[in-house]
Structure formats: structure tokens, C-alpha cells
Amino acid sequence: MKPDTVKIADGFAVKLFFVLSLSNGYLVNFLLLTIESLFIHVYTGKSCCYRNTWRKGDICMIKILIADDHTIVREGLKQILMETNDMVVAAEAGNGQEVLDKIWKDDFDVVVLDIAMPGRSGLDVLKELKSYKQKLPVLVLSMYPEDQYAVRVLRAGADGYLTKESAPNDLITAIRKVCSGKKYISPFLAEKLAFGLETDAAKPSHELLSDREYQVMCRIASGKTVKEIGDELSLSVKTISTYRARILEKMHMKNNAELTHYAIQNHLVD
Predict the structure, then answer these.
(1) Is the CATH code 3.40.50.2300 the one for domain 54-195?
(2) Per-residue model confidence as pLDDT tens digits over 35-88
(3) Where are the alpha helices (DSSP H) in 84-236?
(4) β-strand partners of 142
(5) Least confident of 2-16, 79-93, 115-129
(6) Which are the contacts of 166, defined by CB distance < 8 A and separation ≥ 6?
(7) Rounded Cα distance, 160 and 112, in Å
(8) How many angstroms separate the Cα of 253 from the Cα of each of 13, 246, 256, 266?
(9) What are the sequence ranges of the domains in the chain?
């Protein structure tokens, strides 16, 4: 409640208290106690820590949307969050479009988003989500090591990056941090970012690629055909071929074999 509103309400309460004090009876006493309780609540500011939080008694519950295409992963994350008394999984999504549909229809305090789900790419979903709700914290959860995707998702607007391997130990801490308005990164990633303050010329070739080019490059290096990549990214074969040509040119390579060799050497694919 804004200060001006509190002042008006306070003045109304005083006048109402004066009128009621001229009367007698149990009903008057009940009304006075109710009004007193109401304005104690206003002045003490007992509101939730987060914008869209549910209350469970006096506890502010952080309202979470979990997005992962594997049911077993979602169940595992929910088990971890059950260890807390102030977090609730309010909704789940199995693909990128479901994520967007749910945030359009409801409000959440944080989204835990898998970067690799069927349909639209996780980076595209993240960017659209942030364009619609810029202040909604998004914690990206991924099977990929931090040196593959973390910097890219942070640049795309994510508030934190967490590998699925580290989730059992770090998920709760990460959610609390992004909900408080801060960024969550691991010590390993912090060190990488510190040493990454260098010129483009000194960076590895793959870091010069756009997000889409990087996605295509990783899939080519994984042995997928142009058609398979197009189906996964909802793009035409011609578009994927154009991306492939750009990638080879930027990385000064001649064919897919060289891309695959480079990706394996730099731990970009399993």
C-alpha cells in the first residue's frame, strides 16, 4: 500500500473509531478489533518477499515453473525442492511452447528452464520469455557443461546457469539467488568469465558464432544430417545449409569432418 493510501486509510480508521466508540455492544467491540487487526497488518507491511508468491501461513512460498521434457527429471527436481518449506512447484512444462503458454496465463516467481527441449530451441524460448516478462527470473538447467552453453544463455537473458549434475546440491541456493535479483553462476564459470575479458581475436573460433550458428555447428559435429537439424530447430533444409556455409567460413574450415574434430577437441560434443 502506498504512503498516501495509508494516510487516507488511517484518517478513515480514526473517524470510524470515534463513531463506534459512541456506541456499545459486542458487535462494536468485534468491529474495533477487526479494524485494529487490519491496520496493524498495513503498518507492519506483512507482505510476501516475491511478487507472485503464495502464502502458507506466515511463510512466503516461491512460486516455481519447472520446464523439462523428461518427467523423471521434473520429479527429481520436485523432490529436491520438497526439502524446503518456502518453495512450491506451481506448474510444469514439457516443451518450449508450453513454457510460453503458461507464463502468458499465469505469474511465477522463477522459471527453471531446460535449454534442450523438443521443438523450439531453449535459447529462442528464453529470449521470447524475457521479451514478454523481462523481470521474471530464469534459471537455466542443462545437461551441457558450463563451458558449452553458460555464457551464451547468460547473454541471452538468463539469470543463472546450473548443470543437471550439480542440481542436487545447488538448485535451492540458485533459486534463492535469482529470486533475490542476483545472478547465479558457479565458481568455475566465474573464473571463465574473468579470463574471458579478452579480444575477439584471442577467443576460440566457436565463440565468434551466433547462437543459432553454434546450435547448428554442435548438431553437425554430433553427426546429424541437415534434415534432422532442420526438423529439430523448425527450419528448412536450405536455411540449415546456409548456416553451415557461414560456420565453415567463420571458422576457416572446409568440411564437416573438420568441424567434428574441432568440436571434440574443445569438448563441445560428447
Answers:
(1) yes
(2) 433 333 333 333 344 455 555 556 678 999 999 999 999 999 999 999 899 999
(3) 96-105, 122-132, 146-155, 167-179, 187-195, 211-221, 226-233
(4) 163
(5) 2-16
(6) 186
(7) 10
(8) 77, 10, 8, 15
(9) 3-44, 54-195, 200-265
